[in-house]
Design a protein that fits this description.
Blueprint lengths: L15 E2 L2 E2 L30 E3 L2 E3 L9 H7 L12 H11 L4 E4 L12 H4 L1 E4 L3 H8 L5 E4 L11 H4 L2 H4 L2 H11 L1 H6 L10 E4 L4 E4 L7 E4 L8 H9 L8 H4 L1 E2 L2 E2 L7
Parallel strand pairs: 7-10
Antiparallel strand pairs: 1-2, 3-4, 5-6, 8-9, 11-12
Length: 264
């Protein structure tokens, strides 16, 4: 595989930025492969190697893209193979793992050209999943359930909202309720993160019910930063205290009910 050529041979090449190739071609000649300093390895590129004519230019080893002959033959396509050995590779890998799903913006309308389109009203943000990812998700052995945490403050400006029982009933408050009245939940004595493995949350009825199909469901408590104060310490307690029946019970350690989650 040959890059470009670019640089002085072809200044109008798409890879050229500020009169330099953004992929750093032509590469440096070297008698042996060495590790680059904060960069890719410097691969062996013999000075006395043969040259060839490519797109009307005389090309030598400095324009060859690193490759693997086996992969080129197997997949019959262009595949660039590089050795990544810098510590920054870890950050690069986790960036792609943790950045979330791809998203796409779309709208649905007819083909009438004289109809005024309200782009703001028709805008929808949706998750886009490729066919390959759908197949992979379908074959997963475990399903992840996101379980939030919240602290209910009895403040006058939210009393009217909190008096609505359907709003007051959250995953966490109903988790407490199940630990008080449900026989199975009391016997299991579960952590909050393990609750979705045995119980299913209904968004319509806003309540937990016993799971009929035994699947390897995984509960995932939302993350909290230490700067969030009490919410952060509430999460710490939920990951360590089994079968709490209320916020007060969660703050009770060795028979002492502390005023704050941080104190407990």
């Amino acid at each position: 595989m040959i890059h470009g050529p670019c640089g002085y041979l072809n200044p109008t090449c798409p890879c050229m930025k500020t009169n330099h190739c953004k992929f750093k071609y032509p590469k440096q000649l070297s008698e042996q492969t060495t590790k680059g300093k904060n960069s890719y390895p410097i691969y062996e590129r013999q000075l006395k190697a043969n040259t060839m004519q490519f797109k009307g230019y005389n090309i030598d080893n400095t324009w060859v893209v690193p490759y693997n002959p086996y992969l080129l033959c197997k997949f019959n396509c262009h595949i660039n193979v590089e050795v990544c050995s810098d510590i920054k590779v870890v950050k690069y890998i986790y960036k792609y793992i943790c950045k979330g799903h791809d998203k796409i913006a779309f709208s649905i309308h007819n083909n009438q050209s004289n109809v005024e389109i309200d782009e703001i009203k028709e805008y929808q943000a949706a998750r886009w999943v490729s066919p390959g990812e759908v197949a992979w998700l379908y074959q997963l052995q475990s399903a992840s359930t996101r379980i939030p945490i919240c602290i209910l403050y009895e403040q006058s400006n939210v009393d009217q909202i909190l008096n609505n029982p359907m709003i007051r009933r959250t995953m966490l408050t109903e988790f407490f309720e199940m630990n008080r009245i449900n026989k199975n939940a009391i016997e299991l004595n579960l952590l909050y993160k393990d609750f979705p493995k045995y119980f299913v949350w209904s968004t319509t009825d806003r309540m937990w019910s016993h799971r009929q199909q035994h699947t390897n469901a995984i509960g995932r408590i939302v993350t909290c930063h230490p700067t969030e104060g009490e919410r952060y310490y509430l999460r710490l307690l939920l990951t360590n205290v089994r079968g709490p029946t209320s916020y007060e019970d969660l703050r009770t350690i060795n028979g002492i009910c502390y005023d704050t989650f941080r104190s407990s």
